[in-house]
Every structure is written in structure tokens, then in C-alpha cells.
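--- STAGE predict ---
source: upstream dedup step, 1 unique chain passed
mode: sequence only
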Amino acid sequence: MVNFNRDKKSILLVEDNEDARGLTAFILNDYALSYARNFGEGLLLARRGYFDLYILDNWLPDGNGVELCRLIREFDPHTPILFYSAVACDRDILEGIRAGAQEYFVKPVRFDELKQEVARLISVPFETTFEARRAEVAAIREELAIQQMENRELREEAKENRLRSKEKALRLKAQIAFIAAGGTRGDFAREWPSVLLKEVRSVHTSDAAGGN
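--- STAGE serialize ---
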């Protein structure tokens, strides 16, 4: 279930237990929570949505939170991830952190402790936001510059293709007249590149320059 609210920070909670989802929603009622009941739903919502924090259970009916964390990090390397799970083995905790999570909480956790950690993870310093926006603007400008360059290249290529078509038409007319006047195809082939082709190109280049 997706619950986007522009006035609140958004959190994706991946948790299969309904009671746990309800309790987490009660604790974090200051945020806009979206829920996923399993691994597949969690990955789908994470790809489609724009969240400020992911909270993952590590024990899901169709997978585990560590693998989900790894997959999320492939397309979202920066949004913080918090494990909130009853899976408490040291190995699981270490794997969760290595997969890209910022914190791993083992249930049960005091309400105020969870709220404080969520607030810490979800708050972004102004400097970080400013730098991210600068990077975004720079990326957009770079993409626009590439598109403009590609458009110029396409225009030049189209102009060259038009010129070649005109040359072919003129070459055919010239060949017919040359042969009709008693010339040979061999003579024409030798004369055209050295004389006519150069003249045609210079004329059309001048015309193009004059048209611009």
C-alpha cells in the first residue's frame, strides 16, 4: 500500500506481520508510511516510489531483507535503510550493514529509540541537499549539451544527404548529355569527379551558405 503525502517525509516499511505494521505506524505517525507485505512487493514499491527511508524486516515469506537491501542499493545508493527485525544473529546484522543499511535494530526496541533513529536517518543536512541539487543541475546541463551536439550532427548529416542526392541527379543528367554528344562512359567517369563533382559541391556549398 502506497501512502504518499507531500507534506510528510515518506517511509517504505517492508514487514509481513500485520500487528508489527500497525505498531510501527503508530510509533511513526509523523511520517507518511507505505507498506509492503513481502520481498516482491517491497522491491516493486521501492523501484516505483520516491522514499526518504526504507525500513526492512530481515525475515520475509518470499526472501530476506539483506538481499532486498542489496537490490535497492543497485538503483538507490543514497536513501537510508534501517533494519527492524527479530532476526538477531550477529552474522545477519553484519550482512545487513554490508548490504548497505545504515542501522540494524533488533526487536523489540523502545518507541522513543526507534523514533529518534528514524529522525536521525531521515534528516538531510542542508549542505547535502544543496550539493545534490547542484549535481542534478550539472547532469541536466550536460545532457542538454549532448543533445544539442547530436542535433547539430543530425542536421549536418541531413544536409550532406540532400547534397549527395542533388549530385546524383545532376551526374545522371550530365552523363546522358555527355554520352549523347559522343562521349564514352569511361571518359565521363574520369571527368566527372575532377571537374563536375567539384563544381557542383562548390555551387551547393555557396547556396547553403547564402541560405543561412
